[in-house]
Specification:
Blueprint: E1 2-10, E2 14-15, E3 20-21, E4 24-32, H1 47-50, E5 59-62, H2 72-79, E6 87-90, H3 102-106, E7 110-115, H4 122-129, E8 134-137, H5 140-151, E9 156-159, H6 166-169, E10 175-176, E11 185-187, E12 194-197, E13 200-206, E14 212-221, E15 226-227, H7 236-242, E16 245-254, E17 273-276, H8 292-296, H9 301-310, H10 312-321, E18 329-332, E19 351-354, E20 358-361, E21 384-390, H11 393-401, E22 407-410, E23 414-416, E24 421-422, E25 425-426, E26 430-431, H12 437-440, E27 448-453, E28 464-465, E29 480-483, E30 486-491, E31 496-502, H13 508-513, E32 520-527
Parallel strand pairs: 5-6, 5-14, 6-7, 7-8, 14-16, 16-17, 18-19, 18-22, 22-27, 23-28, 27-29, 31-32
Antiparallel strand pairs: 1-4, 2-3, 9-13, 10-11, 12-13, 14-15, 19-20, 20-21, 23-24, 25-26, 29-30, 30-31
Helix pairs in contact: 5-7, 5-11, 9-10
Amino acid sequence: MLALRPRAITIPRARTSSRIAIAARFRYYSVVANAPIPNKTKVWDSADEAVKDVKSGDIILSGGFGLSGIPETLINAMTKRPDVKGLTAISNNAGAGDHGLVKLIKSGQLDKVMISYLGGNKYLESAYLNGDVGIELVPQGTLVARLHAHASGEPALYTPTGANTEVEHGGIPIRFKPGGMKAGVLIPGNKKEGREFNGRRFILEPAIAGDVAFVHAWKADEVGNLVFRYTANNYNGVMARNAKLTIVEAEEIVPVGSLSPNAIHVPGVYVDRIVKATEPKSIEVTKLAPSKASQTQEASPAEADNKAHKDWRHRIARRAAREIGDGFYVNLGVGIPTLIPEHLDPNVKVWLESENGILGMGPYPTPEQVDADIINAGKETTTLLPGASTFDSAESFNMIRGGHMDVTCLGAMEVSQAGDIANFMIPGKLVKGIGGAMDLVSNPDKTKVIVTMQHVSKDGAPKVVKTCSLPLTGARAVSLIVTDLAVFKVDRAAGTLLLTDIAEGVTLDELRSKTAADFEVASHVATF
């Protein structure tokens, strides 16, 4: 019950010639007195029963990143309802192999997915290119921001991510006609409104509203308070807050009062139904350290040099490592950037950020340390350093878009002399997905963007070009290009390149023949 208790408020003393007057007044406010703990439970007996109200045409929000934190138990329950069709699923990706949302695509229940990344999901890529399913590609940070906007009661948001790219122009088809790209576009991309703020271009992105959220939690109490574990937090928290109906599968369901209020990630007000998670957790890519000793053993300069002489990838990584200072906060993309830590100066210690929710990422684990809830942005197993923190995808991309990273390194298919970068798709042939790349290059004035790549493609075509022919990931975003042949400093404002380094054994004439952009030569050109 509620009781009213008086609160005395002292009025400042008023001095008169004869006496000091002190006044007081009372304000009544409510406090809880002898309130019972609510005994209504949100726990359901089975996943099959919990999803019974999902209907055809619903928009389903599905948590997870790669296979980490995916609601596999709830997805399996939906496959038992083949009568429910025409669904739209929103997630970071659509699973891998036979795990995740790909099950609902194969069962014919999903008509469209709104995702950030396809990765190696060849089944979904083929279905999209053949016109069998619709895919709306959304930058990873924008996706979580749009979900968060609706959960917060906001209709839209402005973001720099995707400005001056096909995301703004609506140039990425959502669905092709039956027969695929040759048959034409059935549903075009959505154009976005653009606006300038303080000299920077932003685009207006609408909030995303879900009908049903499928969420995976580590622990849930009977009234719906949730706790996530390490990188399994990802999209789960924001999706739990968004939908009309939130269904949670939890590894552990505990009595009310078992969870510390200080540990709860999602309060129970957002949660409607809870079931026991029964499917085992899966790992997409298991990467291991050779030994425990190797995790802390620093590569010797001689060993690093030997790798650089034998392997062009390490040569690029060694040169890029020189751009990173002690104490930097750094995001490394997949591929060549992951080799950079091996070539850092022994006196340089950095904090590595992984956009799925890690700051302070460590080396690959030993077999004993493998944990399905600790993965990196490449969906690989990893570890956490002392002082590391884990958080959800909304927090991760706030720090990325906000320019709190010192450096980000990533690969590319093309880079222009103005610093434009293209690295996520080849229209009609390859659809990797946008992932977090557009967000990572969205604030180049605060976060230095370094591209590491081969100078030419497999067919010999130059990748450093005057103007990109592929869809852009970001416009005027790159500050430094490091290839196996050369290093160019980019003047993003002027749209010019300056050659600062050339690889050993490479002549200037050879470099010019393999570069489809204009560049100036520094007064002193170093070799690497």
